[in-house]
Amino acid sequence: MTASLPAELVGDAYTSTHSWELLRDLVDIDNRMAGQEGEAEGAELVNAAFEEHGLREVSTDSFAIPGWWRGSCSLRVEADRTHTFDERYQLVELPGTPSGEVGAEIADVGHGLPEDFEERDLDGKIVMASSSTPDDYGRWVHRGEKYGAAAKAGAAAFLFRNHIEGCLPPTGSVGDHDGPGPIPAVGVSKELGDRLVRYCGDGPTDARLSVECRNEPAESRNIEAVVGPDTDEEVLLTAHVDGHDVGEAANDNGVGTVLVSEVGRLLSRIEGDLETQVRLLVFGAEEVGLYGAYHWVATHDRDRVKCIVNIDGAGYSRNLDIYTHGFDAIGAAFEEVSDDLSVPIEVSSGIRPHSDHWPFVQEGIAGAQARSTAEGSGRGWGHTHGDTLDKLDLRDLRDLAVCLASGVRKLAEGGREVEPKSVAEVREATIEQGYEIGMRNADNWPFDDEEEEDGH
């Protein structure tokens, strides 16, 4: 078992400003929405950083996606009088929404849990659901699941209300794999959402939602490079460069992108000590359907992947949080890092089927999501206008970079086994943890019916 990192390399990490400088350049692009010009500019910055670090086989690979461009939206509500809401601090379109104008009664379904849709007459209504999931529910109920459940219940439109005060309206994709979703959808702030809940509590509340946007084909891209020996298997460290256009996408996922680059820089300093090749991989188009990750899995030899560590949701603090999806060997490596460095690293075994590790994990490839712990419930400023550079701290990025580089180095040990799972095992774990109904509602259940030998 190797030590995490040489002391001099840790010192390098704690004096480096590379991650902050690259993050500043990324947020200054203003709009890195998938398939748009800013995402391509972000990819160029990552490519240039990989080359500057002296990484090998630096390349960019393009692929087609269903593009989406924001237009305008408004909500007119009939309560004691007519109220019109059309400011960006009140509501924003959810990427992948179709254009449309819907006049109907608002139906509040609370948290939007599967049971909240049962025995409700939602046909033709504007369904409203909170972004929150109760802490004791056992799993996170994703936005796409709530949207899909509303559409399948016959809703004419969808309102996604933030549950965190002051964090402005939330955004996030609701598009189908090959184009826009079935019904218009917007995110509304907690403040506006609370007002709408109050109106609905007073009696039937009619509203008219208007959404204008553009859906047409576009192009995204992945950027990658390698460090270490040319071996038959490789460890992947990944993130995504695209981000929602309503903010700067500083945390989600500028932080992940710059940490991949910084870890690549650090590992290049000890390249001769690595026993397995490490691939630094920054995906495009995560926020609209994990397109970059699915494209990579479909076009590369997945049998070469020893494991993947995907950074998404880091930057809330300096405390690393690893979700292993039941691949215990990944968790063990980061627990060793925690002991070596005397720093807290949380390790959880739960399934998280909502980021770029998932196209790998669903195939049985060992994969983990690397996040950082956050106070309170939800992603906070993520996916809102408030996802900006001022919320972040270079000192947190340095701590995270050291822990991630240490963990990747351990996973790259030649004698360290990281066993894959069968697709059936991953499928069963996904069912046991309650995700099947939600993923079916969102039309992204990835497992074939012929695999259902256990009667599910």
Structure commentary:
Strands 1, 2, 3, 4, 5, 6, 7, 8, 9, 10, 11, 12, 13 and 14 form a 14-stranded mixed beta sheet that branches. With 456 residues, the chain is of the alpha/beta class. The radius of gyration is 22 Å and the shape is globular. Strand 1 and strand 2 form a beta hairpin. Helix 6 crosses helix 10.
Q: Can I get a quick summary?
A:
Strands 1, 2, 3, 4, 5, 6, 7, 8, 9, 10, 11, 12, 13 and 14 form a 14-stranded mixed β-sheet that branches.
Share of helical residues = 25-40%
Mean pLDDT: 95
Q: What percentage of amino acids are in beta strands? A: 15-25%
- Sheet with most strands: 14 strands, mixed
Total count of domains: 2
Look at the helices and sheets and give the structural class: alpha/beta
- H-E order: HHHEEEEEHEEHEEHEHEEHEHEHHH
Tell me the distance between the termini: 42 Å
Outline, from the CA principal axes?
A: globular
* Corresponding CATH superfamily of the largest domain: Zn peptidases
Low-confidence stretches: 451-456
| CATH level 3 topology of the largest domain | Aminopeptidase
Specify the CATH architecture of the largest domain: 3-Layer(aba) Sandwich
Number of helices, where a helix is a run of at least 4 consecutive DSSP H or I residues = 12
